[in-house]
């Protein structure tokens, strides 16, 4: 028995060595590729494939390798690298878990997902390229696989903590890179994760804020420093929508905790004090950055000047992302009107939009062709119709319901803390879906799958402990 345990311990140490080796090797390479705009396909083949083959038989190492892949925005054969890694992650899971129990499929989200999945199938009828639509559906397959894998394997809070800590650490590192680029290069900059950093950073800020509110300890100042670093990185990305989603989430959490402060043993004074401090410090940070790098805020100020009525030339359109989105939304609305019940085909708007535009062709070619609808609910409505949107809402609200139920059922301090943390992230994603459709595919889609999996894992831990306590009482 001891020999088996020693062997398992050796394998685990080897897994972490491989993981940290991959960090040391991959991140400098990614930064160089981004900085010099070099080709990446050959590098992925030469370095990535051997690395994957080495850690393929170590599930823990592959799990953290997947989290690293979230911070790469490389695009191959119509899908982001993170999607391919997620699908390969499932193969690693099958190899390393010999006796999979039925509990793997038995989750509170299994039935809602089946309903959602079958609700989008009719949309393929209207797709002009069914094979391509099915291929793009790999995004959704990867999301559900991540939900099942993370929900099944993270059966204690130490594992959940490791996942969260790894994600936040990578986000802080990415923020430091962005700050460096912002101060040296200037303009609108992103790190090695690309534009999705704006959502990654917001989720990290929310997570650190929950740590600051609920966790008591002498290292609270580290959470504050982490928030400031990530917030500074977010400011340099000059993305307005994320600030709106972040503000709405913070207000929602604040109101929720006001009514639930007894559950989390948080005084109203502390709650108001922390949120007030965060607002004041954030404002000071904005002022400092505006003084030293005023160009950072030029794009943010443009939203006040943006109006369809004020457009006089194509230059005006180029200056306003809001106006370019109106062009996309107009085409998406035309597509919905053409097929309101079952949609034009799931994941098909980027290549089907040419059939539905009514704006001038040059504007369509420049601002609409190849793009997605930019709003999650509009994307569902356009591509899968009213039927698909209803299925998606059932799945989405079921996931939020599990988050609230977890908080309600939580008994121990860990249960309460992680339930609040995961619920807060889910609330952010919900608000963000009104401003982006990135949660359906790519890096954000894979992150959503991971978050859903952690939510399921947390819910299983709580219900399992509750059942154990009931058996003890009996």
E-strand count: 2
Classify the helix fraction into a percent range.
Answer: over 70%
Task: Give the spatial strand order of the biggest sheet.
Answer: 1-2
User: Uncertain regions: pLDDT < 50 for 5+ in a row?
Assistant: 1-12, 14-19, 300-319
- In angstroms, what is the radius of gyration? 23 Å
Number of helices: 20
Global structural class: mainly alpha
User: On the 0-100 scale, what is the average pLDDT?
Assistant: 81
N- to C-terminal distance: 33 Å
Order of helices and strands: HHHEEHHHHHHHHHHHHHHHHH
Task: Give a quick rundown of the structure.
This protein is 74% helix and 1% strand. By secondary structure, the chain is mostly helical. The protein has a two-stranded antiparallel sheet with strand order 1-2.
Give an overview in words:
The structure is a single chain. The chain is mostly helical and 474 residues long. Helix content is 74%, strand content 1%. The chain is built from 20 helices and two strands. The protein has a two-stranded antiparallel sheet. A hairpin with a 2-residue loop joins strand 1 and strand 2 (79-80). The longest helix has 35 residues, at 2-36. The chain is globular and about 60 Å long. The model is unreliable at 1-12, 14-19 and 300-319 (pLDDT under 50).
């Amino acid at each position: 028995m001891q020999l088996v345990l020693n062997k398992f311990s050796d394998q685990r140490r080897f897994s972490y060595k491989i993981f940290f080796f991959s960090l040391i090797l991959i991140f400098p390479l990614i930064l160089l590729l981004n900085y010099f705009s070099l080709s990446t396909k050959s590098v992925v083949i030469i370095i990535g494939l051997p690395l994957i083959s080495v850690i393929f038989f170590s599930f823990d190492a592959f799990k953290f390798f997947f989290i690293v892949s979230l911070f790469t925005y490389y695009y191959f054969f119509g899908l982001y690298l993170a999607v391919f890694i997620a699908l390969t992650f499932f193969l690693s899971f099958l190899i390393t878990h010999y006796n999979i129990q039925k509990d793997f499929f038995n989750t509170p989200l299994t039935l809602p997902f089946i309903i959602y999945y079958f609700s989008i199938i009719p949309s393929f009828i209207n797709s002009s390229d069914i094979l391509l639509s099915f291929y793009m559906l790999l995004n959704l397959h990867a999301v559900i696989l991540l939900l099942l894998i993370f929900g099944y394997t993270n059966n204690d809070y130490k594992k959940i903590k490791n996942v969260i800590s790894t994600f936040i650490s990578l986000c802080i590192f990415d923020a430091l890179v962005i700050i460096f680029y912002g101060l040296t290069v200037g303009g609108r900059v992103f790190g090695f994760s690309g534009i999705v950093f704006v959502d990654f950073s917001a989720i990290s800020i929310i997570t650190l804020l929950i740590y600051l509110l609920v966790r008591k300890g002498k290292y609270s100042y580290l959470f504050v420093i982490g928030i400031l670093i990530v917030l500074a990185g977010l400011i340099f990305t000059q993305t307005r929508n994320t600030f709106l989603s972040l503000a709405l989430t913070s207000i929602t959490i604040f109101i929720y905790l006001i009514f639930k402060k007894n559950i989390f043993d948080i005084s109203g004074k502390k709650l108001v004090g922390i949120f007030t401090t965060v607002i004041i410090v954030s404002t000071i940070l904005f002022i400092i950055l505006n003084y030293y790098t005023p160009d950072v805020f030029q794009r943010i100020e443009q939203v006040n000047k943006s109006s369809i009525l004020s457009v006089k030339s194509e230059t005006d359109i180029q200056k306003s992302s809001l106006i370019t989105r109106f062009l996309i939304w107009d085409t998406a609305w035309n597509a919905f009107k053409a097929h309101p019940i079952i949609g034009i085909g799931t994941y098909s708007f980027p290549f089907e939009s040419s059939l539905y535009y009514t704006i001038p062709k040059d504007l369509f070619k420049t601002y609409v062709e190849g793009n997605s609808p930019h709003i999650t609910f509009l994307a569902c409505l356009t591509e899968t119709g009213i039927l698909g949107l209803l299925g998606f809402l059932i799945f989405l609200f079921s996931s939020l319901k599990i988050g609230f139920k977890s908080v309600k059922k939580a008994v121990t301090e860990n249960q309460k803390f992680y339930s609040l943390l995961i619920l807060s992230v889910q609330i952010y994603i919900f608000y963000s879906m009104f401003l982006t459709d990135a949660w359906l595919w790519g890096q954000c889609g894979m992150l959503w799958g991971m978050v859903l999996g952690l939510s399921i894992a947390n819910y299983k831990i709580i219900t399992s402990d509750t059942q154990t306590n009931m058996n003890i009482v009996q």
